[in-house]
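Running log. JK asked me to keep both predictions on one page so they can be read side by side. First protein, sequence followed by its tokens:
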Amino acid sequence: MNKKIAIPTTGGKLSPHFGHCEKFTIYKVTDNKIINEEFVASPPHEPGTFPAFLRNLGCDTIIAGGMGSRAQNLFSQNNIEVIIGLSSENLKDLVETYISKGLASGDNLCDH
């Protein structure tokens, strides 16, 4: 697996709603191994900005707690896989689980 995976982050944890995150933690995965972790400040939150922003950074996947249906559609249009309904205090563990077993979306933690 070779991917760039974005995780919306607040206070060092997975943000429950991606649109209100402080930054994105981005993991570069090559040959099923995390080879880089970087932190990128999120742009101002305006509808539709995050999918294009992350696509321009080369991200293929976003792992989030919650996300509205419009945002999910915009990520899909930007060829970014969306996995929602997760919570975790350890971002690297989420990515390692994704690499080894895959992650399935759970209940959307977003109410809009």
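And the second, directly underneath as requested:
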Amino acid sequence: MNSHRAAFASFAFLIAGAQAQADVADFYRGKQMKIVVGSDAGGGYDAYARLVATHLGNFIPGSPSFVVQNMPGVGSLIALNYVANVAPKDGTVIGAINPTAVTMQLFHPEQSKYDAAKLNWLGAPITITYIATAWKDAQVQKAEQLFSTELIVGSAGGASLTLPLLVNGVLGMKFKIIQGYKSNGAAFLAMEKGETQGNGGDALNNLKAVHWDLVRDNKLRIILSYGLKRNPDIPDVPMAIDFAKTDQQRAALRLALSNQDIGWPYVTAPDVPAERVEALRGAFEKMVQDAAFLSDAKTRKLDINPAKGADQLALVKGILTTPRAVVEQLRPIIGDQ
């Protein structure tokens, strides 16, 4: 009798799962979904979002189409507040956001009208390792020299500002930051002209896509990694956290740098029905392994190093349990940037 009950329960479970998938397919069939990108058109986030928009619908039951909408401002905060609070919560709107939105919740809860731990994290096509670089003629050619010698770096904001500020404030490094460049490209051109000597915070995948020949030809040296684990592309480059001398320094760096492993994430609102969230997560995982997707990414010169939604959620929950003392230590360094 027990074996019959178990078999019946298993059969009922399969039937329920098939019905749920059919319901998801019925909902998405003929729909046009939206990816809301928290940055301008033409940038890295936008490029990945348009790649995702081309392929993700192929793996969602019902095969919906996609459109991309750019909603830049305040490090994706405007876009995320929209997705979490204004957009339909039916699984038709996805946010492509900056992972700093998680730490923003700690530094500026008054601006963050969401709980990152309650968002539905779907995955990311790319996880990021940020780096610091020095031009061939700079006095600083090794990370160790940053404790005694200034390296003049140009900044257009974002990581090129917050990351050198972070290691200056926490570790005592000596990046001298020149702000006001309109773009990372303008800051890079200034380095080539000799106006500055390096970049204090650039994404490794961006460097690989645009200026890897300069690294290959020893005109540009990668001197520091902000990653929390070794990147196989730069195995001999020291990590910032290697220079931490106290537990408090390590905790501060982990808080500020852990969003790299979250990647450039895709999320939906907390109230999206669970079966649709699971369908979207499953679609994302299938997409980043698909040959056509990977081929298209290669054509667009976009690296793929994905993160899963469940792993992202675990990282987010860990970040949000950071002791308040550590948050307050970082606030005057990067919290207001």
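Observation for JK regarding the second prediction: The mean pLDDT is 90.
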